[in-house]
Amino acid sequence: MSTASELPEDFLSSGTTAPLLSVKDLSVTFPTDDGDVRAVRNVSFDLNPGDVLGIVGESGSGKSVSSMAIMGLLPKNAIVEGSIRYRGEELNGRTYKQMQPFRSKHISMIFQDPMTSLNPVYTVGWQLAETYRAHHDVSKKAAWAKAVEALELVGIPQPDRRAAQYPHEFSGGMRQRVVIAMAIINDPSVIIADEPTTALDVTVQAQILDTMLRLQAETDAAIVMITHDLGVVAGMVNRVQVMYGGTVVESGPVDDVFEQPRMPYTVGLLGSVPNPASLGKRLTPIKGAPPSLVNLPSGCSFSPRCPLVAEVCHEWEPELEEAGPNHTTRCHRWEHLATVDQPQRLFLHDEIGTVENPAVFAAARPDESLEVTAAHGSLVTDEEAK
Ligand SMILES: Nc1ncnc2c1ncn2[C@@H]1O[C@H](COP(=O)(O)OP(=O)(O)O)[C@@H](O)[C@H]1O
Ligand code: SF4
Ligand SMILES: [Mg+2]
């Protein structure tokens, strides 16, 4: 197998029609004493230059493990199956060292915690310069100038002076800007940002996201924006993939997924966190906990929490199927969901304790005879009530 450094110069810059990054049926399993943790199952996506893809899902849904698999940064015991192609070149199966030519220069990553990428004992200028020198044969002076330029590019005032400072001399927001400078200094084609603003306050978050979008427009890099916060993806991405229980449960153009979600989990997610679509509405958490990745429920992994669950949902896991143009969903009952007026009300009983409009539930499960218990607002079928 050839490594990137052995590839012809023009191979990595042009000359192939393959997507920039193509992930196909990526699965990651961690063998543990308690059993196999199936952290990621059959995740697929393609990225082309300029694409901004959002990956959203609750904590533990496999977002970070997917990105670490792409970067070749998982621990050795991880079993990584499927294909990860960068401009047609297979990355899965490469050792940490064989991945080195790709990291930073072609695909770079921004972590949630800036101190994952920064070393407290070196100045930020030195660290940026060394990151640049790892892929460019230039003098220390030229690399330092490049470091200062990168700091300026990400909006750090007085970059000359700041380059000589240590990470602890920067505020949280400024430190995350340094990490972004680190991620872009080698002009990568793909930037994977894993919850890059989660630790920051809202104003700083917005500034950082603005900076990332500006850089993206200037460089035409493709971005994968990983977040549990739908507010972040709403203003930023073109496409969104929703992850649950280690797999993609819905995927599509961001406006379609927000306006016409075709998977109950997405509906629940939209109603449980603040986002533009939830303005002025109640926030309704999804009851219950994410599934155990060692013991996944049989059938649909969302079935224990799903207000639309039916018999078939326990029988087999739905395949991803087309629910609209470029819009896919993993739900046996998406066509039914599409007919539900105000689908977010499916989750309302969790929060208000009484059902405001039982007709909504009746419409949601027409094939079952329903009785709504007014006392605690839960939904009881005739079968269960006996
Ligand atoms: N090294 C590991 N060994 C065993 N399980 C792991 C390991 N790394 C991650 N996991 C598990 O994989 C699942 C997905 O984790 P992660 O991708 O970090 O979730 P997210 O980023 O969506 O919050 C979690 O259940 C986590 O505990
Ligand atoms: S398959 Fe069934 S349980 Fe899963 S999300 Fe769809 S309706 Fe709910
Ligand atoms: Mg994570």
Write structural notes for this entry:
The longest helix has 18 residues, at 202-219. This protein has helices at residues 9-13, 63-71, 96-99, 124-133, 140-153, 159-162, 172-184, 202-219, 230-234, 254-259, 264-272, 311-315, 334-337, 348-352, 358-364, 382-385, and strands at residues 21-32, 35-47, 52-56, 79-86, 89-90, 107-110, 190-194, 222-227, 239-244, 247-253, 321-324, 327-329, 370-372, 379-381. It folds into 3 domains: 9-237, Rossmann fold; 247-347, no CATH class; 350-386, no CATH class. The strands form 3 sheets. It has an 8-stranded mixed beta sheet, sandwiched between helices. Strand 7, helix 8 and strand 8 form a beta-alpha-beta unit. 32% of the residues lie in helices and 21% in strands. Bound molecules: adenosine-5'-diphosphate, iron/sulfur cluster and magnesium ion (MG). The site of iron/sulfur cluster has 13 residues, from loops. Residues 21-270 form the ABC transporter domain. Pfam families: ABC_tran (PF00005), oligo_HPY (PF08352). It is found in: Cell membrane.
pLDDT average, as an integer? Answer: 85
- In CATH, the architecture of the largest domain is 3-Layer(aba) Sandwich
What is the strand arrangement across the widest sheet? 6-7-8-3-9-10-12-11
Major sheet characteristics: 8 strands, mixed
Helix count from the secondary structure assignment: 16
| SSE series | HEEEHEEHEHHHHEHEHEEHHHEEHHHEEH
Distance between the termini: 64 Å
Helix coverage percent: 25-40%
Beta-strand residue percentage: 15-25%
Under CATH at level 1, the class of the largest domain stands as: Alpha Beta
Shape: globular
The secondary-structure class comes to alpha/beta
**What number of domains?**
3
Q: Give the total of beta strands.
A: 14
Query: Unreliable segments (pLDDT under 50, ≥5 consecutive)?
Result: 1-11, 350-386
Q: What hetero molecules are bound to the protein chains?
A: adenosine-5'-diphosphate, iron/sulfur cluster, magnesium ion
